[in-house]
Specification:
six-stranded mixed beta sheet, globular, five-stranded mixed beta barrel, 327 residues
């Protein structure tokens, strides 16, 4: 079961489904076109059965999307109404625009994260840090590195243009490693909100019963709906889940500096420093990203009741950084 917890952070909103003291599902929402947004648009360029469209109304905020199927008779320059059915995917070197379909609905922005999850508890900066207590920092680190330990082994999650690959490594006997690893992979797919095509590389198992046991362990850890193949003789299993937004791994790995900057802002806000001017000290790229969005320091200053300054320190890693009194 569990309880959804929502945090309206600076630069992003965060949510986690917490059960048994841990995070079983997590989401991060950053500015951009939301799933379910309905907006007037204009067809800019046909691309085979698809087309590039540009939204013209307030709900779409002038953004672009790929129309999945062009209605009959619609030519370039024509007006239509579209609905976003998959958010943008920040693929490195080749970011994917949102996907849209033609719609007859009235224009409106898509539901915000707190509405989408039906958050039962909303965290303010002065509340106990339920997200951190459940392992939020560890979750972000695992999304950034793709390394997820489990009892007896390690998942290595790799984001590729074609699919997300999950390799299972460990020293247990193959059948036991496959069973535990498959369960851990299913839990990770749910926790990091991984959609689309997913490949799971289990140990090679000639025994059919062992392969079936591994597949059943994954089924028990990953809620429906999804489709999957059987585990083949080489230990490979493919899963297909509906893809509505980028996974946490894609979101964090596509722009680690942005993630580090937002993580620093969260850490400083949650540290509740003593009153007085504060100086944020971090790696130069992180400071540059925060400086480029002055609304972030203004928001942090309002939440802490302090004036916020910035100082770049080349000795810091991008995941480091801290706040100190600005004397």
């Amino acid at each position: 079961m569990g309880e959804w917890v929502f945090e309206p952070g600076i630069g992003e909103a965060r949510a986690a489904l917490i059960a048994g003291g841990g995070i079983i599902e997590a989401r991060i929402e950053r500015p951009g076109l939301r799933l379910g947004t309905v907006a007037p648009a204009r067809l800019i360029e046909r691309r085979g059965t698809r087309a590039l469209v540009r939204m013209t109304g307030e709900a779409g905020n002038g953004g672009e999307a790929i129309l999945r199927s062009v209605p009959p008779g619609l030519s370039e320059g024509a007006a239509l109404v579209i609905e976003i059915v998959r958010e943008a995917i920040p693929e490195r070197g080749n970011p994917k625009l949102p996907l849209a379909i033609a719609s007859a609905a009235d224009p409106a922005p898509g539901p915000s994260l707190d509405v989408a999850i039906g958050a039962a508890r909303i965290l303010a900066g002065h509340d106990p840090d339920l997200l951190e207590q459940a392992g939020w920092s560890e979750l972000v680190e695992q999304a950034a590195t793709g390394l997820v330990p489990f009892a007896g082994g390690l998942l290595r999650i790799s984001v590729t243009p074609a699919m997300t690959l999950i390799d299972i490594d460990g020293d247990l006997p193959p059948a036991e490693l496959a069973r535990r690893g498959a369960a851990a992979a299913g839990a990770a797919i749910r926790r990091f909100d991984i959609g689309g095509s997913i490949g799971v590389d289990l140990p090679t198992m000639p025994d059919k019963a062992a392969r079936q046991a591994a597949a059943q362990a994954l089924d028990a850890a990953l809620p429906a709906p999804f489709e999957r193949t059987a585990v083949n003789g080489f230990g490979f299993l493919q899963i297909v889940r509906r893809r509505l937004r980028p996974s946490l791994c894609e979101l964090v790995q596509a722009d680690p500096v942005l993630t580090a900057a937002l993580t620093l802002l969260r850490r400083v806000e949650r540290s509740q420093p003593p009153p007085g001017p504060l100086m944020l000290v971090a790696a130069p790229p992180v400071i540059a990203r925060i400086a480029a969005a002055p609304g972030w320091t203004d928001a942090l200053g309002r939440r802490l009741g302090a004036r916020i300054g910035l100082r770049a320190d080349p000795a810091q890693t991008i995941w480091g950084g801290h706040a100190e009194p600005d004397r």
